[in-house]
Amino acid sequence: MHEANDKSVPVDSEAGGEVSAGHVRTVPVYLVVLVVVMVGVAYYQYLVWMVERWWRSEYYGHGFLIPLISGYLIYRRRRQLSALPRSGHRGGLAVTVMSLALYLWGVSIPAHFIQGFAFVGTIGGLVWWLEGWPVARAVAFPVLFLVFMVPQARWLVDVFAQPLQVYSALFAGHMAQFIGIPVSIEGTSLQIPDYTFEVAIPCSGLKSAIAMSALGALLAYVAEGAAWRRLLLFALSVPVALLANAVRIWVTLIMGASLGVEVAEGFFHGLSGVVVFLVALGGLLMVGRLLGCQRMRSDIW
């Protein structure tokens, strides 16, 4: 009689019928190295292009920080991750293959932002395939957060810059009129006596919106609170950034009218980018407090 040989193997139904509950399978180091090298070779040209864009583009200078933040978030949860079952899952292989196909399509078009999304999808697919669903779910945000490092400025400028220029000019102009400054609003041009301010593309607020959307996603992830509250915090990050940029233009008009063109276009203009970021950050933190999301998760920090 074979009594003890009849033990059943625990099966994780969430993992598609593959062994995971109570079972930890360590992926061989050589396999991880091999996969990393293969992905690096496949995406080498895109990665070089992306880093160059981070360095040269005024819209994506924050790109260098995104992988560091993602890595830190994973590092902070290393103990929880080490305790999770690992079994691998063929669903991750399907995601990896589809991401590679998307990358080839992006190369053939060509469209760099599609190649960037494919790169992020490949990373997520490989984690799911090699480590299993529990681990993939635990690192889902740090992986998805990498989307914010993908440069998309060209089509964003083409689609959104001009409407944002008009919006910023209208807001700043009407606010200046409200406090008694005579302003003539003509499209993206704001004219006051002895001073004309042109809301150019760099002043549209698009740069602030791109950076603040990443920061809003990060704050929504690390904050405690109901899911809908944190999602709303993220959704409001772009309007807050645009409002802060419009306030900057408004203040510039005030300084131009009261202190002269030299002050408005000189010292203040040089610091205006920092001012916009600080105002937007303060506004976003205030929104988080109003939503009850001011406390940070202890497992992250």
Overall morphology: elongated
Physical arrangement of strands within the biggest beta sheet? 3-4-5
> How big a fraction of the residues is strand?
under 5%
Distance between the termini: 56 Å
Which structural class do the helices and strands define?
mainly alpha
List keywords for this structure.
single chain, 301 residues, two-stranded antiparallel ribbon, 14 helices
In brief:
This protein is mostly helical.
Account of the 3D structure:
With 301 residues, the protein is mostly helical. Helix content is 65%, strand content 5%. The chain has 14 helices and five strands. Strands 3-4-5 form a three-stranded antiparallel beta sheet, covered by helices on one side. A hairpin with a 2-residue loop joins strand 3 and strand 4. The longest helix has 26 residues. The protein is elongated and about 70 Å long. The termini are far apart. The N terminus is likely disordered.
